[in-house]
Amino acid sequence: xxxxTAAVVAAxxxxxxxxxAIGRRASERxxxxxxxxxxxxxxxxxxxxxxxxxxxxVTFTRRPESLRRGRWAVEWEGGGHAVVEEILHxxxxxxxxxLVRADRGTLTPGTEVRxxxxxxxxxxxxxxxLAFADTSADGELGPLPAWHLGGKRGTWVILVHGTxxxxxxxxxxxxxxxxxxxxxLAVTYRGDEGAPASPDGLSHFGATEWRDIExxxxxxxxxxxxxxxxxxxxxxxTTVLHTAARSAWAHAVSGLILDSxxxxxxxxxxxxxxxxxxxxxxxxxxxxxxxxxTGVDLxxxxxxxxxxxxxxxxxxxxxxSDRIAPFSTVxxxxxxxPDVVNxxxxxxxxxxALWNSAPDHYTELLRRWLTPLL
Length: 374
Fold this sequence. Notes:
Structural class: alpha/beta
Helix content: 25-40%
Number of strands: 14
Largest sheet: 8 strands, mixed
CATH topology of the largest domain: Rossmann fold
Number of helices: 12
CATH superfamily of the largest domain: Alpha/Beta hydrolase fold, catalytic domain
Distance between the termini: 42 Å
Oligomer: single chain
């Protein structure tokens, strides 16, 4: 199955060698996502500077990022990190937000900053004061480090971070899981820092990574779990869907939580190429190259997107404004499987940054949805 016909047209016009080179460059970000700021953040229209600082207030250059609602981190050169919340004032001159804390470095007027979703840093104890133990799952490629947080329930939650992120992406949801008494595994998978590399060094969009999540399920079951809930962000959510559909231990999965799932790989690959500056035919070539380089089976992904293999209650959290994973895909999933899918929307939020846009609302949705499954 091909991702489009633009590559054929381009090959005829400029030659196959050039087409291959362009496609390879345009596909780099999605096949080598790496770990970054906690979730993809769309590039803005210019630099953001700190204009003024006062007690509990900071004013930034007016940009789309500084106008985002909710709770965000700002980071700057040298490892600086601060957290800001609601907008207190906004005009053409700047945007004033409440400063929650500046915990790394010194924030001063004139500092150029970057808004990121990564509000919490470090491990569960450093970030939240929650006790945890380092453990590892026995993956087919080697040990897979995980954080284990204890709880009194027999149902465990396995947290799977998404693209351009690491386990720190899971930190914001740990307090509500802790209050509900749910044991937690925040896992790594092939390609993560500290975990084995994928044999070809590429991301396979969950099509191979799911076996690492299956290893985490085995770890949970071997240590007393009766059931597990799989919870993923972005491509981590896609990996969760693969796991629930393919794992020999799928019968132990009692629920799925999907935050900003990637269900249309060609569309997401084109959008990701566009973020890297490739548009039109070049973006199409990037999508096609991603398919060719990873050997992904699009028919298998289509089956996942249709919900054909969903057998457990599934909470889907998504934004109509998502610029990476089209919202229409989750609408179709919810319409196809209303018996198991509960779709909750976060208008105006970015990809895999739903908690940032409305932390209290997001947390309460989790609490309400999880409680009947305990």
